[in-house]
Amino acid sequence: MVSHLGFTVFYQGVIRMERVNKETEEKMKKAVKALEDEFKTIRTGRASAALFDNIRVDYYDQKVPLNQVATISVPEARLVVIQPWDRSVLSEIEKAIQKSELSMNPNNDGKVIRINIPPLTEERRKELAKLARNIAEKSRISIRNIRRDGNDELKNMQKSSDISEDESKRGQDEIQKITDKYIEEVNGIVEAKEKEIMEI
User: Fold this and answer.
1) Residue 77 and residue 102: Cα distance in Å, rounded?
2) Looking at the predicted structure, is the pLDDT value of residue 16 above 70?
3) What element of type H or E holds 170?
4) For residue 47, which of 14, 15, 144, 185 sits 20 to 30 Å off, Cα-Cα?
5) Contact of 119 with 200, CB cutoff 8 Å
6) What is the pLDDT of residues 41-93, one digit of tens each?
7) DSSP conformational letter for 54
């Protein structure tokens, strides 16, 4: 029969193990979200407002995200229109786009900026698909590192007798399941991105 104290210690151990697993999953979720955010900024042949997420504009001596000084719309598949709320910032927006890694040519008519998204060359598509795969691999490594940290925490808890060997093993099995789930998500995201990049 388990003593009341023994049961309390066991229960606390289970709670600690679940906390480690929950924190591990939260970190993996963030890694996948970061991947999705980074993928939004990779140019494909289609126009998208998300392409401009990383662009900062000089506005009253501050670097401000473009979407905080202008409306970005996509009226056609290959056209982006940027309309600043304050026309005095038009030339700064134009400069910021020209300096960016997007390789785009903004057309400033004094009211709005229009950007035609040219179709990507076959070679450029392959480069971008390779870039997407590399970014996804970094994400997988990040997820595996999070798994290792979670497992290490469980092993340390076992060493200090906070949880039993069985609980540690159960916790590590759970972390492996969580890891597999998020690696699978990364694989699905990169597959979809490659398909989008290679679309003509």
Assistant:
1) 17
2) yes
3) helix 165-198
4) 185
5) yes
6) 887 777 888 888 888 998 888 899 998 999 999 998 889 999 999 888 999 99
7) T
Q: What per-residue string of b and e applies to 89-101 under the rule 16 or more CB within 10 Å gives b?
A: bbebbbebbeebe
131 CB neighbour count, 10 Å cutoff? 15
The CB-based long-range contact list for 100-105 (8 Å cut-off, 24+ gap) reads 100/54, 100/55, 102/43, 102/51, 102/52, 102/55, 103/43
Instruction: Kindly report, residue by residue over 28-43, the tens digit of the pLDDT.
Output: 999 999 999 999 888 7
Residue type, 56: R
Nearest Cα neighbor of 101 from 65, 58, 55 is: 55
Q: What is the mean pLDDT of residues 176-180?
A: 97
First-residue to last-residue Cα distance in the chain = 69
Residue type, position 28, single letter:
M
Give 80's strand partners: 115
| Per-residue confidence (pLDDT) for residue 84, from 0 to 100 | 93
CA-to-CA dists, residue 125 to 97, 106, 139, 157, 186, angstroms: 21, 21, 21, 48, 20
CA 130/CA 194 separation, integer angstroms: 9
Each as own residue / partner, the long-range contacts of residues 117-121 (CB below 8 Å, 24 or more positions apart, any chain) are 117/43, 117/45, 117/46, 117/47, 117/78, 117/79, 117/80, 118/78, 119/45, 119/78, 119/200, 120/43, 120/44, 120/45, 120/197
